[in-house]
Amino acid sequence: MLRTLTIPAPGPTPSADPGTTPTTAPAVPTTAPAVPTTAPAVPTTAPAVPATAPAVPATAPAVPTTAPAVPTTAPAVPATAPADPTTAPAVPTTTPAVPTATAGRSRRPLRAAAALGAGGLLLTGCGSGQAAAPGSQGDLRARLPKAVKAAGVLKIGSYLNYPPVDFKEPGGAPAGLDPELARAMASYLGLKVEFVDMPFARLIPAVQAKEIDLAMSAVIDTKQRQLGAADDGHQADPGVDFVDYFGSGTSMVVKAGNPLNLSSLESLCGRTVAVQRGTVQDELATRQTAACLRIAKPLQIHRFEGDEQALVEVASGVAAADLNDYPVAQYNTTQPGRPGTFQLAGTTFLQAGPYGITVAKDNTELRDVIAKALDQVIHSGEYDKILAKWNLHRGAVSSAVVNGGL
After folding, report:
1. Strands (E), 66-165
2. What percent of the chain has pLDDT over 70?
3. Which residues have a Cβ under 8 Å from the Cβ of 65 and sit 6 or more positions away?
4. Backbone dihedral region for residue 340 (phi beyond 0: left; psi -120 to 50: alpha; all else: beta)
5. Pairing relation of β-strands 240-255 and 321-325?
6. What's the pLDDT tens digit per position in 323-349?
7. What's the pLDDT at 98?
């Protein structure tokens, strides 16, 4: 606990330094220098110092407010005015030394200054002048990229047609898991959020081109996306980094009752599957086509910009199933008007993978700050509240992970 130091109010301001002449010193008479207002003028002969002579007391009294400062030039000492041999100090022929009373007055501010210095050190330890602790709110704000800090805004790309993860409310405001988590992290960093609605397949290229600061739209973290690798293994793009924030996986949505008895990727061979373009499910179905060809049961893939079109195909019987992220797949089977239309074809994921906040490879500064901010949101309890609101507690994580996808 810090102790507050009370500094007594100093007396009249002393000379800045004994022996240094202040610029405001009054003019000195040509005769002996004036003494305090109660002292008699110095006679031409040296009288004995009276009993009431202003000898220096045991403790230095404050100098009266009318006491003159040290004169600008040394007063000439009368030839017949010897110093009092008993108690009075001799008057020097050069600039007189500051009398003992003045010295006592200058020591007092020095003690106060020392006390103030100590107090200043204590205050500095608690005040804003101290460097922010690593990982603290102040430290994370300071570590934000200059452009983001100057703008005061995080520009986030998202495909806002993927409830309950990303969608628009009737008034047009972004809502769902991702927008709410993004706002919580940005608030911790002292930033606002600007959502840019764009097709899912455009998100990673937009991050790489610096059109947006990051993407947050149920993007599943995979090693292939981290490396920017194409299906055949060659380098297709610079890749991206991820800050993983939610555990997800691919689920299969089928007609209610599962009339085709679908349960796995292999059971889709010889049929048609509907997916959203550019998603992990698109990649998963594409890889499955080779396996289906080996058993002479080709798999047809219908790709759409949005999941709603895929669901229409399942409802009409054109597609046998819709491959989707677990949160969205579950949402599509439980929303009003959906029960009795769709169901999940099993309780296990066809392929597990975390959602990752997508950041450019060369923007490690922002990536690391976002990871720490996400940890703060998780540990504060706000993260659990957001997941509970959207019935997504099954995918909760205990901490942020960078590039944890496989």
Report:
1. 153-158, 161-162
2. 67
3. 12
4. left
5. antiparallel
6. 999 999 999 998 877 767 999 998 889
7. 39
Each residue's pLDDT tens digit, 161-174:
999 999 999 999 99
In this prediction, residue 143 carries a pLDDT of 95
Residues 293 and 205 in one domain: no
Residue 159 is encoded by which pair of tokens?
């495909």
Is 175 in the same domain as 314?
no
Same domain, 277 and 151: no
At 113, which amino acid appears? Answer: A
Q: Which domain holds residue 391?
A: 141-244+357-402
346 and 289: one domain? yes
To 5 degrees, how large is the angle CA 45–CA 46–CA 51?
135
What confidence score (pLDDT) does residue 231 get? Answer: 80
d(CA 352, CA 230): 20
Name residues whose C-beta falls within 8 Å of residue 185's C-beta, 6 or more positions apart in sequence.
370, 373, 374, 376, 377
In order of 109, 143, 206, 351, 399, the CA distances from 149 in angstroms are: 44, 9, 20, 38, 25
